[in-house]
Known about the structure:
Function: Required for normal morphology of late endosomes and/or lysosomes in neurons. Binds phosphatidylinositol 3,5-bisphosphate (PtdIns(3,5)P2).
Domain CRAL-TRIO: 96-257
Membrane topology: Peripheral membrane protein
Radius of gyration: 20 Å
Number of strands: 5
Main location: cytoplasm
Oligomer: single chain
Organism: Naja naja (Indian cobra)
Amino acid sequence: MTHLxxxxxxxxxxxxxxxxxxxxxxxxxxxxxxxxxxxxRPDIGFLRTDDAFILRFLRARKFHQTDAFRxxxxxxxxxxxNLDMFKNFKADDPGIKRALIDGFPGVLENxxxxxxxxxxxxxxxxxxxxxxxxxxxxxxxxxxxxxxEDQELQINGFILIIDWxxxxxxxxxxxxxxxxxxxxxxxxxxFPARFGGIHFVNQPWYIHALYTLIKPFLxxxxxxxxxxxxxxxxxxxxxxxPDCLPSEFGGTLxxxxxxxxxxxxxxxxxxxxxxxxxxxxxxxxxxxxxxNLERECSPKLMKSQLWSLKGKNSHxxxxxxxxxx
Length: 325
């Protein structure tokens, strides 16, 4: 057993072999093949290239070296293209801290029956005067960076559940194509995590419309792992056992405590007091250029897009001609 497998059980090592094509006998050669490709992309600054880091990209792409390198390159390129998002990229950054305290994301302590970590998003909790979408995305990406250090999660992967209960049309209008695409690029195309399922529950019609809007940017594999349950929790329980879920999702666990993950990341710095007034937040928000992304498309435009999607599908091709490719 290579030192890179230290701490892994024989069962997990065997699972990596069967599901991910991971072979301990040639593991270092696989890693070196990916590392050797770095010289082909002198336009990218590869800030970390150690064995353990490259290994997570190989696992995310089932040890296809070319695909793993492409993901590694996209990981660093995404950060180069969105420098403002990754300034002060740590839990005590004011914007990230606010999002974490408000439960973006929630992370259940226990895994599901396949060893996957379950992340939760309660969409209606998004106070748009308090948290920018970009800061919520930053908090999610930071959380994944922390979680992916766990080798078992590199192998077993993650589940994401989004509860859209009481998510208003006004809130949905802030989910512009620009920021949705930013999220897709950051999570689907540029991060070495295996998502076993993305589950929507209690979604209104305009979330169905938004899903249609972003479909062209989703890989086929991602589309197949998105499940729209509506208010049918039985279909959710067929894929995730109730004894792994909090009561909000019809599970047997207690209601989710929004501060659980924030306390884990922030430690002694955690405070759930309302320490950020709207005034101070708005002042800070104006100063940071990451908010520019959210001004690219107005809520009016988003509403017109949603109504056209609901009323007549043919308008969609006018909005997103990429679907034809």
